[in-house]
Write a structure and sequence with these properties.
By secondary structure, the chain is an alpha/beta fold. It is about 35% helix and about 20% strand. It is built from ten helices and nine strands. Helix 1 packs across helix 2 and helix 7 packs across helix 10. The protein starts with 11 loop residues before the first strand and ends with a helix.
């Protein structure tokens, strides 16, 4: 009997209705699949029934990785390592469709890493990921709302995002204390490119460090008290960070990069 490890944020998805909903979002036949954090393999089983071309699973927990190997044999490839230490661009020569019931304690870190590590060749075509509902709400938030922030801007920079549904705690074993949400992501074809994507992360981090205060202080910190850029972009320095939309943060990052040469 495998017990979920709290230290790894494990909550195994056991609700067959939710599992069916997940595997029916896309046609999976002949696709190359990556599943992150497969747990005891309930979703993996449903994916395999859809006749994909290849299934790779990444599982950090040694016991669960061994369970997956014994349960599915040569039907899947098991990688027993930490997803945060995995070079996702080297997982496969083929484009991957990614499923993940992500550990809540590292879900945002995983998503941001994937966004920042997108190269010329995008390694995935779709991401179908489970998040804590509060985190999912931040990802799909609109500006001028309390949940709008760095995560919203970073995710919407490179990805089109759609919320599929919320998932009740009863759908997991053990039951988490909070609701979850399934999000569907697709890479954008048109987006603003930066010299270094980490500059967008830096700009948004500085602006949202004091999200309830006016943007004047973080703006001056980034632009050496030069008001001309604010005038050029058309922003007032008495606004709050959540009052600026995606495009404004993209423009601010481009200006920041120009300033740095």
């Amino acid at each position: 009997m495998i017990k979920a490890k709290k230290s790894l944020g494990q909550n195994f998805l056991i609700d067959q209705n939710v599992i069916n909903k997940i595997v029916n979002i896309l046609e999976l036949k002949d696709r190359n699949i990556l599943e992150v954090g497969p747990g005891t393999g309930n979703l993996t089983e449903a994916i395999l029934k859809k006749k994909p071309k290849k299934v790779i699973v990444i599982e950090k927990d040694n016991n669960l990785a061994e369970l997956m190997k014994n349960k599915f044999k040569e039907r899947i490839k098991v990688i027993n390592q930490d997803i945060l230490k995995t070079n996702e661009n080297s997982l496969s020569n083929q484009i991957l469709t990614v499923f993940g019931n992500l550990p809540y304690n590292i879900s945002t870190e995983i998503l941001i890493n994937w966004i920042l590590n997108i190269k010329e060749r995008i390694w995935f075509d779709f991401l179908i990921l489970m998040f804590q509902k509060e985190v999912a709400d931040r990802i799909v938030s609109n500006f001028d709302s309390k949940s709008y922030g760095r995560l919203t801007i970073m995710a919407n920079w490179r990805l089109k995002i759609k919320k599929i549904c919320d998932v009740k705690p009863v759908s997991f074993q053990p039951r988490p204390k909070i609701e979850s949400s399934i999000l569907f992501f697709q890479p954008k074809k048109n987006f603003i490119s930066f010299k270094n994507p980490k500059n967008l992360e830096k700009v948004t981090r500085i602006f949202f460090m004091h999200r309830r205060k006016m943007i004047k202080k973080p703006y001056y910190q980034l632009f050496n008290k030069d008001n001309s850029i604010a005038s050029k972009i058309g922003i007032k320095l008495n606004l709050r960070p959540q009052n600026l939309n995606f495009e404004t943060y993209f423009e601010l990052t481009k200006e920041y990069e120009s300033l740095r040469g």
